[in-house]
Amino acid sequence: MRKLVVAFVVLAGFAGLFGVGALTALLVGGGAGRPSWSDCATDLGPWGDGAQRGESDASQLTPESVGIAKRIIEIGKQRNLPPRAWQIAIQAGKTESNLANLFRGDRDSLGIFQMRPSMGWGTVQQVTDVDYQINKFYDRLLQVSGWEDMRPGSAAQQVERSAFPMRYHQWEPLAAHLVSVQGDVPGITACDDLPSSGALADQAIKYATSKQGAPYIWGAAGPDAFDCSGLVQQAWRAAGVEIPKYSQTQYQQGGVHVPLSQAQPGDLVFWGANRDPGSIHHVAMYLGDNQIVQAPQPGESVEITKLWDGGELLPTAVRPVPDKVQAAGGVPAVGGQR
């Protein structure tokens, strides 16, 4: 839980990766006008290159892959499912098969989503039928509690149950781009649908800031000493919202993912090596006006300080919201796919 930079690096680190003034742009929004679905959804990825990478990845798809993506969207529309569901299915299909209807795979895995007949997904004929596969994926997705508020790759993992859960996030910009272009939904944005943390955030902030001066002790969760994740957990508990204890779990299951550009006071901000969610090692609470409250590292105390980067600040924050905090589980897979 290290404090990696001082004031100079706050500017220098962002200038090197995003350009001068990028920290301000991340927090207040860089573009003019209403964001498209693609612009907003791709901001949720940990790589920071958003729509540009999504468009680039899409340009490399085969005609078969584009056709399957279109069919995923068409069936999603027929079933009156929101664009977020289409995105989740596209990310899963791209990860599992490169959006191809494969007649091979690990053990008896087949098709777009590598469904296994031996695990109850259907017959060989069914799990290689494009429409059946897409409908089956949507059926399973709808059984996942809270899927609408999960990060799309996390929802895909709840259906697929892969041994490599983080890999679905890689195709977030691609899927958001396809939803925006192929699905023709530029007026629908993930940003517009983000819930507000409201008055509960004020209570969490009041608790966290009242602990200024409390010593950092690794693993501590109050009332007189804290580590970084313990501080934010107890602050939100004081507001009546339960979130997990550890920073990586807080990122994955602590609430609704929001772009850092949409961060509100009370949201959680995270640091990880190479901005990778799988390498998160520090969390703090955003206070607004480019300030955070945090328990920094051994030998230091809870403090209010400027938001800092050091090349590790993730462009995705987490907003704990009542009834939106994800359960650690989800729908049990039929034997699992992996």
UniProtKB/TrEMBL annotation:
<dbReference type="InterPro" id="IPR038765">
    <property type="entry name" value="Papain-like_cys_pep_sf"/>
</dbReference>
<dbReference type="Pfam" id="PF00877">
    <property type="entry name" value="NLPC_P60"/>
</dbReference>
<dbReference type="InterPro" id="IPR000064">
    <property type="entry name" value="NLP_P60_dom"/>
</dbReference>
<protein>
    <submittedName>
        <fullName>C40 family peptidase</fullName>
    </submittedName>
</protein>
<feature type="region of interest" description="Disordered">
    <location>
        <begin position="41"/>
        <end position="60"/>
    </location>
</feature>
<feature type="domain" description="NlpC/P60">
    <location>
        <begin position="194"/>
        <end position="325"/>
    </location>
</feature>
<dbReference type="InterPro" id="IPR051794">
    <property type="entry name" value="PG_Endopeptidase_C40"/>
</dbReference>
<comment type="similarity">
    <text>Belongs to the peptidase C40 family.</text>
</comment>
<keyword id="KW-0645">Protease</keyword>
<keyword id="KW-0788">Thiol protease</keyword>
<keyword id="KW-0378">Hydrolase</keyword>
